[in-house]
Design goal:
This protein is of the alpha+beta class. The protein is about 40% helix and about 15% strand. The strands form 8 sheets. It has a 5-stranded antiparallel beta sheet, with no helix packed on it. The longest helix has about 40 residues.
Length: about 1000
C-alpha cells in the first residue's frame, strides 16, 4: 500500500457567496479612496479538497482522527489504524470475531490518539443480547471488552483533555442512548498481573440517583435523558489554575451545561461532585424547537492553536434538526453558565431539504456534510462560502470529522477518504465584521493589509459622520488614506470647525519631520480656524466667556506641540501677521512668550504704550541683548524703573554696550540723574574700569552734578596709572565748564604744577598751598611753587603779615628768598622779627655743626685705638677644631678664622659663599682664582723665587680675602639678606622629597 500523502486528486469545488476585494499585489497607488484596486492572481481556495490515495478493501463504516492517528472501521470487520507520521506502517485489526451478532455503532478516539472505545449493539433488535463497550490501546492490537458497561449503548464520550498518559484514560464521562451519564477510568497497565477489568473505579452511587434509569447502573452519575433521549454530545474541561470544571452535554433537542468546583482532583469519582450540585436543583439547559423526527444531534468545539499542552475551546456549535446552535465559551464568569453569545445558524439549503448528516466547526465556518456534498457556511454572517459536490463512484458520504489537535478536516465516503486543507479562512472576516459595524474586530483581522484596514477605517469614519458624531469621524478619517481635500470639504459643508481642527491635528501627528510643506499648511490652517472662532466671539462681546477661554486654552496647547513649535519658529513672521490680521494681540503676545520671542513681545507692549509691561517682560527673560536693544525707549519713557532693572542685572550686563543707549537719553535732568545713578552703581558696586564709562560719568557730573565732581576725582586718587578716566579729556571739559577747582586737581595730576598753582591762586591761597604741598621728592620744584605763592601774596595782595606767616608754614623758603618781592619803600621794621629769627636759626645751625665735628673727631680717635688693639689680637686654635661647614679637621687645609669664632676651610667658604655674591663679584672671584693658580704654577717651576712674584701672589690673596673674608658668612650681612630664602632650593626640592619618601 502506498503512502496516504503521496498523491492527491483535485475535485470540483465551487466557491459561492461574497468575496473580499482583492489586495493590491503591486505598488500601492493612492487615490481619493486610499488605494487603487488591482488585478491579481487567483487566490488559493479557502477549503481545498484533496483525495487521499487509498483504496479501501470494503465499504468504510466509521472513521476517527486525532493527533494524526486515523482509525477506519470497514464493513468486513477490519480495523485500519494508520499513523500519518509513518503512513506506510499501517495496522489491520480484526474486530468481527469479537461477537458476530453485534454490530459496531460508534467509535470514539481520545485527543492523544492512545485510547479507542468501540460501542457495539445487537444486529437484531429482537435479540436478547446486550450492547457492549470495547477498548483498544494504541500500543496494543488486542481489543478488550469492558465489564461494567454491558447493556449500555455508549453514544458519546467526554474525554479527559488533561490526560497525557497512554496507559490510562484518567476520569472520563460516557453518555448512553438512555440519557445516562457515567463516570469511570480505564487502564491498560500490563504490569498489573491481577487486573480483572479495565475499570479503575466503579463506585455505587446513592439510591436516589437511578430513578430514571436501570436500577443496576453502578457507574451512573446523572440522568438527563429521563430514559428516552440519547446523549449525542458530551465534553468536559477543567479551568486552568482552578479546581473548577464545566460539562457540556446534548440530547437531540437540548444542550446542558454543568459548572462547579471539586474539592480535590484526586478524589474519585471526580465529576460526581459537580453533578451532586444539580440533584437538589434544576439543571440548566437550552431547548430548541424540534418535530422530533431527527433522532440525533452533533456537538462540536473549536480549539485555538496554542503551544500549551491543553487549552480550552473558545466556541461551540450544536447541530439540531432546525439549525446550528452556535456560541462562545466564556469561563471568566462566576455563574453557572459558560455558553455565551448564542445564536442560530440556519441551514443554507431551502426547505424541505433534510438536515446535515454531520458537521465540523472551524474558527469562522461550519462544514455541513450532506449525502452527496459538503457545504461551508460562515458563522459570522450565515453566508454559504462554498459548496463541494462528490462523485457517486465513491459511494455515499459517511461522515466528516476533524482532528481536535491538528485541526485537519477529513471526509469519509464509502470507498474513499478526503482531506480538506484550510487556507486562510479568516481572509474575509474583516469584511464581514465591517459590514456588521464591528469595526474594531474588523481591524484585528485585516492582517496588516493596509488596503483592507483603510476600507474599514473609511467605513467607520463614514458611519460616525452619518450619525453626526463628527469628532469621532474626524479622528478616524485622519487614519485613512482618503483624499485630504475631500474630507476637509465634508466638514466645511456641515460647518463642523471643531471636527475639522481635530482632523487636521491628527493628520499633523502622522506627518514626518521632512514633510515641512504639509506641516506648515496644516499648522497655518488650524491657527486660522482658531482665529476665526475667537474673532467671532470677540465681536459678540464674549471674550470673557468659558467658551472663549476654552478656545484660548486649546490654541495654547496646540502651539505648545513640539512639531508646531518648530513650524512656528520657521514661519514666525507669517504666524504673527496672521494673528495681527485678526486683531488678536493677546494671542500674539502669548505666542511670543511661549516661543520665547521676547523681542516681539516687548515691541508690542512699547507700541501699545505699556512700558511697565514691556519692562516686566524684559526683566523676566534671559536674553541680554534685548536690554541693549530696548534700553533707549524705556529709559526715555520710564527712566527710574528701567535703571532699577539694569541695576538688578548687575554684572550680567556689559555697561559699555549700554553706553549708546545711555548717551542718547540724557535730554532732561530726570533721565540724567537716573543714568548717573546707574553709572555710579557700575563704578562703585561692580568695579567697572572702562574709560568710556568713567568719561561719560565725568561728563554728566560736569553738566548736571558739579558738586559730585570733586568727590569723584578724589575717589579716583592721585596715582595717574590707577585712574580710569581720560585726564586730558577731563581737564578740557572742566575748562570749558569753568570748573577751576577741578582744573587745579587735574593739572596737578598731569604734573602741570605751575599751571595748577596759578589756577589755585585764582581761587584761594589755601588751595594754592595745598597744591604746592603735593609734589614729593623734588624740593627745588616745591620751593618754586611756594615762591610763586609768596610772590602772589606779597606783590598782589601786599600783605606783609600774611607773607611772614607764609614763611613759618614752609621750611624751604627763607626771609632772604622773599625780600626781592617787597617794595623798596618797605621799612625793615616789618621784617625785624623775621630777620632776627633767621639769624638765630643760622647761629643755632653753626653750633650744631661744631658739635657734630667734635663728635666725629672723638669717634675717629676711638677707631684708631681699636685698630691698634686689633693688630695685637690673637685666637688660640685647638687641634680638634673643625670647619663649620664640612665638620672636618680645620688644620688639614688653609682656613679662615673670624672674630666671632666661626672657622671655615678656605675652599668650603668660597663654595658656600659663591651663590650669595652678585654676578659681578662672582666673575671677579673666578678671575682672581685663575690668576692665583697661574702665579703659583709659575713660581713652582723657577729655581729661585723673587720678591716680585711673592708680592703678586700676596696681592692676589689679599684681593680674594677682601671678597671672601670681609665678613663672617654666618654673622654678617649675607645671612641677614638671605633670611627669607628657603632652606631647600627649588631645583633640589623634588629630589629631596623623593629621598624622604
Amino acid at each position: 500500500m502506498t503512502s496516504l500523502l503521496d498523491q492527491y486528486e483535485q475535485n470540483s469545488q465551487r466557491t459561492v457567496g461574497p468575496t473580499a476585494p482583492p489586495t493590491p499585489a503591486g505598488p500601492e497607488v493612492k487615490s481619493a479612496s486610499g488605494f487603487i484596486n488591482m488585478a491579481i492572481e487567483d487566490e488559493t481556495p479557502m477549503f481545498c479538497k484533496q483525495k487521499v490515495n487509498f483504496a479501501p478493501p470494503d465499504r468504510i463504516m466509521h472513521m476517527c482522527v486525532s493527533s494524526e492517528l486515523i482509525v477506519l472501521a470497514m464493513n468486513n470487520g477490519i480495523l485500519f489504524r494508520i499513523d500519518l507520521k509513518q503512513p506506510e506502517k499501517h495496522e489491520e485489526i480484526e474486530f468481527s470475531k469479537l461477537n458476530p451478532q453485534l454490530k459496531l455503532s460508534g467509535m470514539f478516539l481520545d485527543p492523544t490518539g492512545d485510547h479507542l472505545l468501540m460501542s457495539f449493539v445487537p444486529r437484531n433488535t429482537d435479540s436478547q443480547l446486550q450492547a457492549e463497550l470495547f477498548y483498544l490501546n494504541r500500543k496494543s492490537n488486542k481489543i478488550r471488552p469492558t465489564s461494567k458497561f454491558r447493556g449500555h449503548e455508549i453514544t458519546a464520550v467526554g474525554w479527559n483533555y488533561n490526560n497525557v498518559r497512554s496507559d490510562t484514560t484518567r476520569p472520563l464521562l460516557l453518555g448512553t442512548s438512555k440519557g445516562l451519564i457515567l463516570e469511570t477510568e480505564l487502564s491498560n497497565d500490563s504490569e498489573r498481573i491481577f487486573q480483572s477489568s479495565l475499570e479503575q473505579y466503579w463506585k455505587q452511587l446513592p439510591n436516589y440517583l437511578p430513578l430514571y434509569g436501570p436500577k443496576d447502573a453502578e457507574g451512573m452519575v446523572f440522568d438527563i435523558g429521563k430514559g428516552n433521549s440519547a446523549i449525542t454530545g458530551l465534553e468536559f474541561h477543567k479551568v486552568p489554575n482552578l479546581e473548577r470544571y464545566f460539562i457540556i452535554a446534548t440530547t437531540p433537542n437540548r444542550i446542558y451545561q454543568f459548572v462547579g468546583n471539586v474539592n480535590s482532583s484526586d478524589e474519585r469519582p471526580l465529576l460526581q461532585q459537580i453533578f451532586n450540585i444539580y440533584l437538589t436543583r434544576a439543571e440548566g439547559f437550552i431547548e430548541v424547537p424540534s418535530k422530533r423526527t431527527l433522532k440525533y444531534s452533533k456537538l462540536q468545539f473549536f480549539y485555538p492553536k496554542s503551544t500549551q499542552r491543553h487549552n480550552l475551546p473558545t466556541s461551540f456549535a450544536w447541530l439540531t434538526e432546525e439549525s446550528i446552535f452556535y456560541g462562545q465559551i466564556d469561563v471568566a464568569g462566576e455563574g453557572d453558565e459558560v455558553l455565551a453569545d448564542s445564536q442560530r445558524l440556519n441551514y443554507p439549503l431551502s426547505p424541505p431539504a433534510a438536515p446535515p448528516i454531520n458537521f465540523v466547526l472551524t474558527e469562522f465556518h461550519v462544514l455541513l456534510l450532506y449525502p452527496n456534498r459538503v457545504v461551508g457556511v460562515s458563522t459570522l454572517n450565515q453566508a454559504m462560502v462554498f459548496e463541494d459536490f462528490y462523485n457517486e463512484s465513491y459511494g455515499k458520504l459517511v461522515s466528516i470529522t476533524k482532528d481536535p489537535v491538528k485541526g485537519t478536516v477529513w471526509v469519509i465516503a464509502e470507498r474513499a477518504v478526503f482531506r480538506y486543507k484550510v487556507t486562510r479562512e479568516e481572509r474575509n472576516v474583516w469584511q464581514i465584521y465591517m459590514e456588521k459595524g464591528q469595526f474594531e474586530l474588523a481591524k484585528d483581522y485585516c492582517a496588516n493589509n493596509e488596503a483592507h484596514l483603510d476600507q474599514v477605517l473609511c467605513r467607520q469614519a463614514d458611519t460616525y459622520f452619518n450619525n453626526q458624531e463628527y469628532e469621532l469621524s474626524a479622528i478616524h478619517y485622519a487614519e485613512t488614506h482618503s483624499s485630504f481635500e475631500e474630507i476637509a470639504l465634508k466638514f466645511l459643508q456641515v460647518w463642523q470647525i471643531q471636527a475639522l481642527k481635530t482632523f487636521l491635528r491628527k493628520k499633523l501627528d502622522k506627518l514626518r519631520p521632512t514633510d515641512q510643506t504639509q506641516t506648515t499648511m496644516i499648522v497655518m490652517w488650524v491657527i486660522e480656524l482658531f482665529m476665526n472662532q475667537m474673532g467671532t466671539l470677540r465681536n459678540q462681546g464674549k471674550e470673557m466667556t468659558t467658551e472663549y477661554l476654552q478656545l484660548q486654552q486649546q490654541l495654547d496647547e496646540f502651539l505648545s506641540i513640539r512639531q508646531v513649535e518648530e513650524c512656528v519658529k520657521r514661519n514666525k513672521g507669517t504666524v504673527y501677521d496672521l494673528m495681527a490680521s485678526h486683531g488678536d494681540k493677546q494671542s500674539m503676545i502669548r505666542l511670543t512668550i511661549a516661543n520665547k520671542d521676547f523681542e516681539r513681545v516687548i515691541q508690542q507692549h512699547i507700541h501699545k504704550g505699556d512700558f511697565f509691561k514691556a519692562l516686566d517682560v524684559l526683566r523676566k527673560q534671559k536674553e541680554k541683548s534685548l536690554f541693549y536693544q530696548f534700553a533707549p525707549p524705556l529709559i526715555q519713557a520710564v527712566p527710574k524703573a528701567m535703571v532699577q532693572v539694569l541695576i538688578e542685572q548687575g554684572k550680567a550686563l556689559d555697561p559699555t554696550k549700554l553706553l549708546p543707549a545711555l548717551v542718547s537719553c540724557h535730554s532732561d535732568d530726570a533721565q540724567a540723574n537716573e543714568i548717573i545713578r546707574y553709572l555710579e552703581f557700575c563704578v562703585a558696586s561692580i568695579n567697572v574700569q572702562e574709560q568710556a564709562i568713567h568719561n561719560y560719568l565725568l561728563t554728566l557730573y560736569a553738566q548736571h552734578k558739579p558738586d559730585r565732581l570733586m568727590r569723584y576725582l578724589a575717589m579716583q586718587g592721585q596715582e595717574l596709572s590707577m585712574i580710569n578716566y581720560d585726564v586730558h579729556y577731563a581737564l578740557r571739559l572742566c575748562r570749558e565748564r569753568g570748573l577751576t577747582e577741578a582744573c587745579v586737581q587735574l593739572s596737578a595730576l598731569l604734573g602741570l604744577w605751575q599751571s595748577a598753582v596759578d589756577l589755585a591762586l585764582s581761587v584761594s591761597v589755601d588751595l594754592a598751598k595745598q597744591t604746592a604741598s603735593l609734589p614729593t621728592g623734588d624740593d627745588e620744584l616745591t620751593k618754586k611753587l611756594w615762591l610763586k605763592i609768596a610772590q602772589h601774596v606779597v606783590s598782589k595782595e601786599n600783605d606783609i603779615q600774611q607773607a611772614m606767616e607764609f614763611l613759618r608754614q614752609s621750611d624751604l623758603i627763607k626771609i632772604e628768598d622773599i625780600l626781592p618781592f617787597f617794595s623798596d619803600f618797605v621799612t625793615i621794621d616789618h621784617f625785624k622779627e623775621a630777620i632776627c629769627g633767621a639769624l638765630q636759626e643760622y647761629n643755632q645751625h653753626i653750633q650744631d655743626l661744631k658739635e657734630e665735628m667734635e663728635d666725629a673727631t672723638k669717634s675717629a680717635e676711638i677707631i684708631r685705638q681699636d685698630i691698634q688693639a686689633f693688630r695685637t689680637r690673637y685666637t688660640v686654635l685647638q687641634p680638634g677644631d673643625t670647619c663649620a661647614i664640612c665638620d672636618n679637621q680645620l688644620l688639614l687645609r688653609p682656613f679662615y678664622m673670624f672674630p666671632c669664632q666661626h672657622r671655615f676651610h678656605s675652599d668650603c667658604l668660597v663654595a658656600e659663599l659663591r651663590p650669595y655674591l652678585s654676578p659681578v663679584l662672582q666673575s671677579r672671584l673666578r678671575d682672581l682664582q685663575k690668576q692665583l693658580s697661574t702665579v703659583c704654577a709659575t713660581a713652582s717651576d723657577t729655581t729661585s723665587v723673587g720678591s716680585t712674584s711673592l708680592s703678586l701672589r700676596d696681592q692676589l690673596k689679599t684681593d680674594i680675602d677682601s671678597i671672601v673674608a670681609s665678613e663672617c658668612l654666618y654673622c654678617g650681612d649675607y645671612m641677614i639678606n638671605n633670611i627669607d630664602q628657603p632652606f631647600i632650593k627649588d631645583e633640589d626640592f623634588d629630589r629631596i622629597t623623593k629621598e624622604w619618601e
